[in-house]
Amino acid sequence: MSIDTTYGIGNKFVTSITYEHAELLNCDPGKRANLPGPAMFHVCERKEDFVYFAQTLVQQNEKFENVNFVGADRSAALKGFLQPLKGTVLVPCTKHVRDNIELQLNSLRIEDEEKKNIISDIFGDHVNCKKGLIDSESVSDFHDKLEILRDKWCSVEKGSKFFNYFQIHISNDM
What we know:
By secondary structure, the chain is an alpha+beta fold. It has five helices and five strands, in the order βββαββαααα.
């Protein structure tokens, strides 16, 4: 399932859930239908609110606490949603991770061509069938590829600052 908070509705937030239905199939053969689920309306983003949301869902249906994976952004408050769930793994949304990386590259004023190369190194290039760091087969494969990228990124002006940011803020989530 995935959970996402919508911003920009005045001073209000809407956090909605979508999930793959176990029995309904999409038009694509074998793919499950993605359906909207419960939502929470709130006026601030506190970890306690997300814990309460998850606890309420578990009270309604005990099976909910056995969800294996939750796709979400990387906000600290939203991670509270996982507390009442048993062994659930947070899978960060690729779009949010990419947005965070692009924001950091822009703040470091890394040139557009180098920025494009770094993004391709991380997320691959689907047009040219190039796999990226995100496509690593294992944790050790990820770390091996990241070591190779360290030299490449650090050869760029301010690339070492980006590499440090990536190691501290992104790599564990990937």
